[in-house]
């Protein structure tokens, strides 16, 4: 997962409150850092996304593959 995919996943799952969750919610699994701090510290976006999902009780069905753009159709 790239950082841009992380951002799309957060927006898709949390909508307008996503930015606040990323900047304010501390994630136990990441040493009580916020998602923003964890990303800045070099934690892979996928790991941060999964920790955010666990902390906010996102259903497992919403966790994998979220944030990816649909592939372009081949001619």
TrEMBL record:
InterPro entries: DUF3046. It holds the Pfam family DUF3046. This is DUF3046 domain-containing protein. It comes from Microbacterium elymi. The lineage of its organism: Bacteria, Bacillati, Actinomycetota, Actinomycetes, Micrococcales.
């Amino acid at each position: 997962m790239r950082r841009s995919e992380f951002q799309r996943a957060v927006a898709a799952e949390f909508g307008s409150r996503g930015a606040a969750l990323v900047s304010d919610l501390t994630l136990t699994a990441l040493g009580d850092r916020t998602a923003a701090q964890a990303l800045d510290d070099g934690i892979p976006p996928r790991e941060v996304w999964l920790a955010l999902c666990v902390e906010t009780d996102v259903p497992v069905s919403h966790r994998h593959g979220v944030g990816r753009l649909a592939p372009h159709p081949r001619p």
